[in-house]
Amino acid sequence: MNEFFKKLMDQVGKLWGKWTLVQKLVLGGVVLAAIVGVVALLSVSSTPTMVKLLQTPLASDDELRQITSRLDTEGIPYQVGEGRLLLVKDQKTALRAKAILIREDLIPKGTDPWAIFDLERWTLTDFERNVNLRRAITESVKRHIEALDDVDKASVTIVMPEKELFQTDQRPVTASVILFPKPGADLSQNRKKIEGIQRILKFAVEGLADENIVITDKDGIILNDFTNLADFDRLQQTKQEQKIIQELEAKYRALVLKALQQIYTADRVRDLNIKIDMDMSKKIVKTEEYYPVTIKPRTPGSPYDDSEIVPSITVSKNTNTTTWEGTGFNPEGPAGAEAQTAPAYKDLQNMVGKMTQNQTTQNEDVNKRNIDEIHSPGIERVTVSANIDGQWNWKFDKSGKAVITPQGGLDREYLAVPAEELKQAEALVQNAIGYDKSRGDSVTVQNIRVDRSVQFKAEDQDYRNQQQFNQIILYSLIGLSILMIAFIIFRIVSRELERRRRIAEEKRALEQQMLRENAIRQAEEQQIEVSMSVEERKRLELQEHAINMAKDHPEDVAQLIRTWIREE
Question: Which residues, listed in sequence order, are joined to residue 156 by a DSSP beta bridge?
Fold first, then answer.
């Protein structure tokens, strides 16, 4: 053994000598991490395990203070974990603390009452199994009810008594449900929905009867007391009947309005009233009918009816004939006694009579059938009243302008609907509703003038606004035309004045030039030296050049002058 350890140490020493520094550091880190992990595991496993006292966290500080105060009084150690969860050191301490809290009524609201049985044990008693079964059934029924669309929340309590030896001693299974409907749900007014919830309970809980189920709302009103819902059912049925009548009236009203408004426009046909009386009772009618016997049916394809129909068929016939002839009956008394014949019979004595009697008995057979009919709700009477307004037309004068009243409005005339058209409209309405005179239907179509004062005021105002707008446009056009004419006249006058001014200036310049030239000419003739400016010399040279050009090319000069005149 010592040699094995010695060889192992030698091999480890050789390997250690061959490793590099990095490999040695990695190995040292791994060994150190393993040692730290083992130490941490031992420290954690050595800490006592804490058990939850309650499965749900405490909602308020008051509940936490009351429970912790009571635990301190009883000397039970505890810890407050995250989320206000109370923790104790072991399961035994948790059971003792729960018993104290239940006895002192310190269990917080919202805590599952069955949570005290949630214990981890190796064995279970029959009582605990029954409790778990009851919890499972209760939770399943609660989930089923809360899965309904109209239920927001439900509280379910089911009581299953212990089984007794004798049936007479057995107490019944009972169930109570508190429903919290969703906003807008008609759960408390819908009998079928309540019956559905009651049936869910019956099928989920064995032995549960209708009389042992109580379903209430949050206000404590019993919802499954169907014996007191007779009046409510009657009201519901009445509402359904009224709804059917209203839908039928709306349908007929739409048909009649559509037919009349397509002819007279929607503005003229606005008043339409329809009243339908319906018999909502259910009737069963039994009829016994007798009808003739057909001996021979009609030949197919025959141009005339060759069938043979008789009222009845003779089944048996018996005829008896009796003939009697002789004196009449003469009753007499016993022999030796005076006859006591009545006077009426004495008158018939010694008369001979004859009688013949024929009697026939005949049995006839006819066709017979029995008819059983169920009459559904039907229409008893339909009444319709409609009003068709006439037409309002504007009055125009000979020039085609609308006539204005002294009050400043448009003058109108009313054209009433002719009586023939009213009769035609009445026939149209009768066909639309399926008029039946025998059941007392009534259709009235009249022409009553509708008050349109508000509409006429709006039309008059629009007409006046339009006229004012037209006048503004007309006056604006006239003013614009006057301005344009004035501008054209001003332009012509200004151009004429400018032309005259220019002509006058040219004339004055020409006169001055002529005077200057004459003066220069005279000075030259007198051999007097005259000083001339550069501009005057250029002007003189241009003038001489123009004169020479006019003499040499008179046509070109004339064309140039005409061009100047046109430009001016």
Answer: 177
Give the pTM: 0.41
Cβ contacts of residue 2 below 8 Å, gap of 6+?
Answer: none
Strands (E) located in 99-170:
151-159
Tokens standing for residue 385:
């009243």
User: What per-residue confidence (pLDDT) applies to 5?
Assistant: 66
Residues 6 or more apart whose Cβ sits within 8 Å of residue 102: 116
Contact 214, 178 (CB under 8 A): no
Secondary structure of 468-519 in HEC code, one letter for each residue: HHHHHHHHHHHHHHHHHHHHHHHHHHHHHHHHHHHHHHHHHHHHHHHHHHHH
Angle, vertex CA 533, rays to CA 527 and CA 539, nearest 5:
95
Q: Is pLDDT larger for residue 18 or for residue 496?
A: 496
Bridge-based pairing of strands 442-446 and 412-415 is unpaired
Q: At CA 142, angle to CA 141 and CA 146, rounded to 5?
A: 120
Q: Give the pLDDT band (50/70/90) at residue 55.
A: low
Q: Which amino acid is at 47?
A: T
Q: Which two tokens stand for residue 184?
A: 């807008």
DSSP conformation letters of 169-200: GPPPEEEEEEEEEPTT--GGG-HHHHHHHHHH
